[in-house]
# Entry
Amino acid sequence: MPSIEARDLTKRYGSFAALSNLNLKIEGAKCVGFLGPNGAGKTTTLKIFTDLIRASSGQALINGVDVHKEKKKALDPCGVLIETPEIYPALTPREALSMISEIRGVPRQERAKRVEAVVAEVKMEEWMDKKVGKFSKGMKQRINVATALLTDPDIVLLDEPTTGLDPRGQAEVRDIVKSLKQKNRLVFMSSHLLNEVSEVCDEVAMIDHGKLLVYDTLTSVTEKFTQDGGEVEVHVDLLKDIDDKTLSSQVSPIAGVVSAEKVAARTLRIRMTGGLDDQSRLLSELVTLKIGVVSFRPSTSRLEDTYLKMIKDTL
Ligand SMILES: Nc1ncnc2c1ncn2[C@@H]1O[C@H](COP(=O)(O)OP(=O)(O)O)[C@@H](O)[C@H]1O
Ligand SMILES: [Mg+2]
# Structure
């Protein structure tokens, strides 16, 4: 089973700790989001795992092999995309990828086939023989992802693969990352974007100020934090106007409701505590009031609440 493991991983720059005693073991074919705001320590971690920089102390292990001690062996199963170099614009994907596959040691007789396969994986077949200089940023990034796949890696490490792309480019790259895990790979992708991690990943490791905050499945992380008294804001649209009396005598008293107010004649903003079960209960109680509920939506995603709360707690 593919694995990556950090043991007490620490990186200091002078007295500043960019990474402090990171302990994290990820095992199996799945996609794990490495989530944290800018400056959290994501790139530092990935650079240590690829031996681009050395840890001050602790160990980075890939399939149990120490990356600083046995770099070649440790990184052999890995495909990596960190600080992407620009592909020379006059080359086509076929040309660029053939050259890179040679550098990566893909056997000569397999190169052409591998190049075709990775270009197909990033859905760029039609562009195989067009010059990279004409590509959009998103297309270039798909080719960059393809370079990481040339050796058919079991482990794929991606550092903020969608950063700097327009929304469409981001969506395309996300789709590709999603499809990567179907091939029995361990995908470890850093991101400062919550929606991205929640859309793409099975698990999330949250980091801030060089410290791991949590590593768990997406579902457990959000569950745990809303049960810990996190407040959720819900917007409720109504078919007809609601009067203040109904609001204060019937909506506000519902269990779990912290506050209920009108933001427009037919829209309520309700702050509530609790998890998904409580939201579901609130909705059914609102429906029984016959106030004409037509929509019910939490205004921020639960993951976002969790993320913001966790980051705030570490400040
Ligand atoms: N070479 C360096 N010298 C000093 N500080 C650095 C260096 N590289 C990174 N840092 C600091 O380490 C922290 C973590 O950086 P980084 O790992 O790049 O964060 P992220 O990728 O999560 O945005 C930041 O505060 C950054 O300024
Ligand atoms: Mg970074």
